[in-house]
Amino acid sequence: MTERILIGPADRVFVLTGAGISAESGLPTFRASDGLWAGHRIEDVCTPEALEANPALVWEFYSLRRAQGAAAEPNPAHRALAELEAKLGERFLLCTQNVDDLHERAGSQRLIHMHGELAKSRCQAECGRPPVEDRTVYRSLEEVPLCACGARLRPHIVFFGETPLEMKRIQRTLEESTLMVVIGTSGSVYPAASFVNWARQAGARTVYVGPERPLNAGAFTRIVEGNAGAVLPGLFEVSC
């Protein structure tokens, strides 16, 4: 039986989730070993240059991902994190590298999508208007609507080479945290892979949960091996 993680009344918890937690709900992950993401080269579907050169292919790829995301369901790991948030309130923040909405559908509210959101679109010309909710699975580029400024909308996704969202809030919260829990991420994608080091520098306990040891395993004070859906329910003991 896995030793439980104790969370006291003075603890502030920062959780980082990666593709592994969504994979347990059946969503495909990026595999760096072969350079492919769901059968596509990253350079062809997830860079600003790809959007400029072939917006039809980019929208085809993300429309497929929208369809896959809509068909997936939150798993016990998503629900366990929502339950932990309900107990801790403002002492909890969840940051996810995932663009699906499985955390929200499980009940999470104190949440940052650092790589954007699949169910939103924004102006390709970056005119300053906020992203809009958009769950449409487009069959062609001609179906993609225009922004109020006249430019075509683009997926509200942080492409490779673009700056992740809400980095100042993430860093500030990490500096205030006493416990960081990282779930289902390989430790190979930066800047997220650096977060555990920021937390350690602030004096936080750092825990990793996943089926395999991450590349940055040395930065964690504890590693719990196993699928998140099996490990997370019952892992935390909260004393308020």
Explain this structure.
With 240 residues, this protein is of the alpha/beta class. The protein folds into 2 domains: 1-27 and 73-115 and 164-240, TPP-binding domain (Rossmann fold); 28-71 and 116-157, SIR2/SIRT2 'Small Domain'. The protein has helices at residues 19-23, 42-45, 48-53, 55-71, 76-88, 102-106, 167-176, 195-201, 228-231; strands at residues 5-7, 13-17, 30-31, 36-37, 40-41, 92-96, 111-113, 116-123, 132-133, 153-157, 179-183, 205-210, 222-225, 236-238. The strands form 4 sheets. It has a 6-stranded parallel beta sheet with strand order 7-6-2-11-12-13, with helices on both faces. The protein has a 3-stranded antiparallel beta sheet with strand order 3-4-5. A 3-stranded antiparallel beta sheet has the order 9-8-10, covered by helices on one side.
Short description:
The protein has helices at 19-23, 42-45, 48-53, 55-71, 76-88, 102-106, 167-176, 195-201, 228-231; strands at residues 5-7, 13-17, 30-31, 36-37, 40-41, 92-96, 111-113, 116-123, 132-133, 153-157, 179-183, 205-210, 222-225, 236-238. 30% of the residues lie in helices and 23% in strands.
- Beta-sheet strand percentage? 15-25%
Number of strands: 14
What is the H level of CATH, i.e. the homologous superfamily of the largest domain? TPP-binding domain
As a percent range, the share of helical residues equals: 25-40%
CATH class of the largest domain: Alpha Beta
Task: Detail the topology: elements first, then pairings.
Elements: E1 5-7, E2 13-17, H1 19-23, E3 30-31, E4 36-37, E5 40-41, H2 42-45, H3 48-53, H4 55-71, H5 76-88, E6 92-96, H6 102-106, E7 111-113, E8 116-123, E9 132-133, E10 153-157, H7 167-176, E11 179-183, H8 195-201, E12 205-210, E13 222-225, H9 228-231, E14 236-238
Parallel strand pairs: 1-14, 2-6, 2-11, 6-7, 11-12, 12-13
Antiparallel strand pairs: 3-4, 4-5, 8-9, 8-10
